[in-house]
Automatic annotation (TrEMBL):
<dbReference type="InterPro" id="IPR006342">
    <property type="entry name" value="FkbM_mtfrase"/>
</dbReference>
<feature type="domain" description="Methyltransferase FkbM">
    <location>
        <begin position="79"/>
        <end position="239"/>
    </location>
</feature>
<protein>
    <recommendedName>
        <fullName>Methyltransferase FkbM domain-containing protein</fullName>
    </recommendedName>
</protein>
<dbReference type="Pfam" id="PF05050">
    <property type="entry name" value="Methyltransf_21"/>
</dbReference>
<dbReference type="InterPro" id="IPR052514">
    <property type="entry name" value="SAM-dependent_MTase"/>
</dbReference>
<dbReference type="InterPro" id="IPR029063">
    <property type="entry name" value="SAM-dependent_MTases_sf"/>
</dbReference>
Amino acid sequence: MGKTVQKLLKIIIHFQNWPVRFLELAHLAPRRLVTLQLRNGPSFFVRPYSSDVSCLQSITRDGEYFRYFNVMPGDTVVDIGANIGSFAVFAAYNEPTSRVIAVEPVQKNFDILRKNIDCNRLANIVAVRGGISDVSGPLIFHHGKGAWFASGSLYRIEATSDSKEEAPGRTLADLFAEYGIERCDFLKMDCEGAEYKILLGCPDSVWLKIRKIALEFHNFEPGKNQFDLLDLLRSRGFRAIIPRKYERKEIGLIFGVRE
């Protein structure tokens, strides 16, 4: 079976309204928000011709962040860099007894995140506008290219345009205190390079509350790479791993479970 046919079959199997995705692939979809409905799962507003759908598929179909562990009943989940909610909404929907805190700095993404929470009528998820860093205070986020930019980074090197915006900033300790997080069972991070500052600036009191971490690393800062993060997690009491396929990548995933 050809790769194209396999790709199309995966789309049909994963999405109930798969023709919407087919229209995008054929460059016939409208340039406005469309809805994709997962089979036996939540629905999502997405932006055609952006990274929204590929991210949605990698999380909800391929289980990108669930490779080694999952969200369990009663878990408190913190999603740093929630984007449009692919991870946060999926987790909250599939484990309704969980509590999910979804943090996103980019206003356009945040607005869609709220829409995705509302359209699935999820009462166990809280959307927080802002970014996380090693200090509190306003943060400047640089955008990707195009009207449908889907991410924001503290690092200008990651941006593909001159567009930027300011968002409220807080530390992970601030976030935990503000939302009464005494135990974080699952910390998911995709923060476009800020993961180094966030974790290096994290006090012991916060580290001890974290049970599992799944994070995407971005090697944007000279002198820092995924192995520094791996060593940091291990020094903080986590059994941590970089899947082999990411060992030599500039962007990839790290997983950690507290021992």
